[in-house]
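Supplementary notes for students who missed Thursday's class. We covered one full example, reproduced here. Read the sequence, then the structure, then the short commentary at the end.
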Amino acid sequence: SIAPFIIEGYLVIKVIKAESNFRGNLSSLLALKFNDFQGNTKTEIEIAEGIITIDGEINNDRIFGNITTQNIDLSSLQPDLFAAFTSDKLNSKISASLPLTPLLTSASLLPITVNRVSLEVGKQNLQAKGNFVVTNIWTSPDIEQFSFDVDTNFNLAELPLTQLLDKIPVNRQILPTTVALTGEGNFIGTLLGKNLLTAPLLPGNLEIIGDVNVANLSFNEQQFEPELRGKIDIDSSNKISFNIEGKQDKISAIFN
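Structure (token representation):
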């Protein structure tokens, strides 16, 4: 293996294997121009008690990669955002592309396009696509901004909702001390945010908005009709709003 890659204040990254093959002009390489370069790379990284495997193809100054993650510990990856997921591991498959020149020349901004994400955390699963921008990748990395179209199935009983709501600065006097939800559902919408690695829960840095369907919903032992649907909007500034209804039951609220 290669010596661990360390950035002060971040998790240690241990490169287990790195294999690359490149073809291109030496003059272009010396000039840091990669438009005529072609090749492939395979890398295995150990981070957050799990493994990331990257299979990449290089063509015309872009890297096209298939990425898999196995048993990543979310709570150590981003403690502020994922502290409630101490027992759940991240497993995912990602198809993405990014420009090669900004990566190798330490440019301050690195735009990444994600064509497909298939992700599992515990018993929850998510499908998504979108894009994000990484800043200062080799010195003090952060995901400056991101935007994803999301389609996810969830089991409310498996989500640490009380702990997650504690992260949102709404008026605590109007919320119950604990939140016990059961039911299964589907969410289709948009996930927007910025500063994901350094300050994801600062006011205005994270927002989830979209359409939700819930089956067999129960809230603190209050049972609702078998199927409810509607809209939800959660952001990290000071707002939770939702409006879901069935044939008779209707749940509508805005918390600030």
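Commentary. The helical segments are 26-30, 74-77, 79-82, 100-104, 161-165. Residues 26-30 form the longest helix (5 residues). If anything here is unclear, bring it to office hours.
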